[in-house]
Amino acid sequence: MDRKLLLEHIGVEGIHTHDVYRKNGGYKAVEKALKSMSPDDVVEEVKKSGLRGRGGAGFPTGMKWSFIAKPEGVPRHLLCNADESEPGTFKDRYLMEKIPHLLIEGMILSSYALGCNQSYIYIRGEYMFVLQILEKAIAEAYANGWLGKNIKGSGFDLDLAVSTGAGAYICGEETALIESLEGKRGNPRIKPPFPAVKGLWDRPTVVNNVETIAAVVPIVNDGGGAYAQIGLGRSTGTKLISASGNVNNPGVYEITLGLSVEEFIYSDQYLGGIKNGKKLKACVPGGSSVPILPHYLVCKTATGEDRLMTYESLSEGGFATGSMLGSGGFIVYDEDQCIVRNTWNFTRFYHHESCGQCSPCREGTGWMEKVLHRLEYGHGKMEDIDLLWDIQRKIEGNTICPLGDAAAWPVAAAIRHFREEFEWHVKEPKLCMTKNYGLVTEKTFETVNG
Amino acid sequence: MSETNPKFTVTIDGQSVQVDPGTTILNAARMIGGDVPPPAMCYYSSLKGSGGKCRTCLVEVSKGSEKDPRPMPKLVASCSTTVMDGMEVKNKSSEKVIDARAGVVEMLLINHPLDCPVCDQAGECHLQDLAYEHGKSNTRYEFERRTFDKVDIGEYIKLHMTRCILCYRCVYVANQLTEQREHGVLKRGDAAEIGTYIEKSLKNEFIGNVIDVCPVGALTDKTFRFRSRVWYTKPMDAHRECKCCSGKAVVWMIGDEIARVTARKDQYGEVKEFICNECRFEKKGKADWTIEGPRHIDRSSVISANHYEVDAPEHTPLLNKA
Ligand SMILES: Cc1cc2nc3c(=O)[nH]c(=O)nc-3n(C[C@H](O)[C@H](O)[C@H](O)COP(=O)(O)O)c2cc1C
Ligand code: SF4
Ligand code: SF4
Ligand code: SF4
Ligand code: FES
User: Fold this and answer.
1) CATH class of A18-229
2) A363 vs B111: CB contact, 8 Å cut-off?
3) ω into residue A402 within 30 of 0, thus cis?
4) pLDDT value at position A3?
5) What is the pTM (predicted TM-score) of this model?
6) Relative to the CA of B26, which of A176, A234, A306, A326 has its CA 20 to 30 Å away?
């Protein structure tokens, strides 16, 4: 069933080098676009493809591109978001490490479409070795005339540079990324103005995820229509999934959107089932920010339909019984994992990563972490569970950037589906230090669209 | 705004006002006055870029505009959201706002030392007022509070970071005053702190104004520290010839002595004309100043309840919670 659009040549020896990449059809999309397509044609194909942002929010890329302001005489910028710091997500790294020219080719196409002559890849500082791979690949692309002045005689100029972060998750938020790239502290900006109007150095700017930009290559090669044929409904194309946790075959997979979650977890072609023959307890399908699902809502929705790997199906049931595709960080938990501990772990991350600009996130994330720590170590009280619920509720929707929501949602979902496990930690303070709770009982939800 | 620009009508808690396009909800609310304006702990009219951070000014937009009447899905920061024609806003009349604001106040207080009895800001502290008017009387926080060491930033200013609410106002003052950034925020999350990096002193002639913009007792005047409680001093409008600034200030007197000099603030606690360091820190002699008369201090200081003024104009003293 699966078509490989991004990772097709990943196994080819030396595919990270320009020459091997080129021999395997690389830079054909650039040739095609520069010779026979106008920038607007490229935008049109991306619109037709139905491609949605792969960085987490799933916003239609073609539409995002058409919002960019085009004031006369003001340069525009394309920024590739390679900050990839969401726990559970490691697909961008894999792509950049193995096939860096695909990203560079995508950057050339996307910059051409948007009319940008100076584009940047912003990469997290911890990916130092990937930075070296990218810089080498960029040098090769310059040497072969794919970057620089008057690319292949088309009259289109593009300079591409890589810039590194310094170890902050928040710099993946697009406006914080822009601040950081400008050499400032990575605090998210207050929107509006949106980057499409005032971004890098107050110029119109588009920020896209690594995978989104790479997907423009097959879209230009095969046409947006052909891309839209792949996938299911409004979830078109293929998606890289970073699979981790208690599964037999963790790793990065390129799946065709529409694959069933059950097949993805249990088929040998994919994750090969739960490790050591254990039972599935829970799943976080889209990176640490998205709601965790209990075992009985992973492969089926609350209405009993098959859960599919699409934006729509994974969010079926709203937050009451659904989750999100997010960035595709698919984390699987077996029956021996502790949800309280996992929630504490995630919360510790958000506490550590909050930029501290707005009071609810700055103070609330730390507070939640402390309460969760207490619960996990058997010192919690029954009221702590409602307190946690209340703190997350006070953060959600009340902050400058979505990190506040990202910190609140995992806590809310854990309490929503695993309350009995939290209560057990209070009732069994000693036992919870030596044993895990196991599976939670199935619940029915009156409101499916909570 | 030019005459040709049509005005926008915005309704806040049932009261309508006509404002220029581009006006924020908060400023529209201030034009209505009374108890309509939401509290603002970080926004400061004269500081470019300020606002949006503390989240105390959150309001509910129950109608987006005449053209697009849909309500906004989330509460918005009134200080950084501009009005649309026909917009309807709920501040005090919204349960959601009251609840969220109480949440913000609680968040601001969980790590706050609440050492008001020994804090120079006590009596004119915006956080005290905010907690009093919008907070809950108990705390649910049972963990150790975060602390920082006190540091001197320069000759005249003390930074008591433990009390800071990270409103960033002082950062914007420093940004607007100094050529190179010397003062900013270091670290992140609840470990973030105001700093000058290697404890460099802030040397700008106007840097003393960070004390006035600070809504809490995090930045205090070392020439006044522990001299007196605010409520034992008498604020008088005064002026002097100054080469550097307007020389218009408020001198806070104890008997015949000038204990402290500050800039003049409006009813929202905002300074309209910043004063220089010389006026603030070095001119403490009565002969340095021409005293104009008692300063009317609005509700943001306990002074307003003191009846020190001869003809006390309208004021809203903070009453004791029963
Ligand atoms: C706290 C936070 C961290 C984020 N980190 C990333 C990231 O590492 N990579 C990424 O592509 N998008 C990240 N995003 C989403 C970006 O803000 C932005 O929406 C995305 O890069 C847009 O690209 P897309 O439209 O191609 O998905 C993050 C958002 C938030 C709020
Ligand atoms: S929500 Fe958190 S990370 Fe985002 S701006 Fe506010 S404090 Fe910073
Ligand atoms: S800053 Fe305000 S609330 Fe904090 S200790 Fe001082 S007076 Fe009290
Ligand atoms: S020191 Fe005062 S003015 Fe500066 S950020 Fe802290 S509270 Fe705001
Ligand atoms: S005054 Fe609006 S967020 Fe602080």
Assistant:
1) alpha beta
2) yes
3) no
4) 82
5) 0.94
6) A176
